[in-house]
Design goal:
Elements: E1 12-18, E2 34-39, H1 42-55, E3 62-68, H2 69-73
Antiparallel strand pairs: 1-2, 1-3
Length: 79
Amino acid sequence: MSETDTPKQLLHLVFGGELETPEGLTFRDLDELDIVGIYPNYAEAYTAWKAKAQATVDNAHMRYFIVHMHRLLDPDTAA
């Protein structure tokens, strides 16, 4: 399989942690961030994000995020 046959990696980071307020984006303790993983596409990242979000639904301060790393690594490429 050549490089042109291989789908382009669109890396996504899934991470989360407890926020100071449910409305905010400031984490209570950066040392306690949960780095779930890096995934090769949005679909896999979404599956991981959803599992973590559902597992922590009882904690209103806990929030997970998907970061589109491919946009940071190559901002000129639209995906």
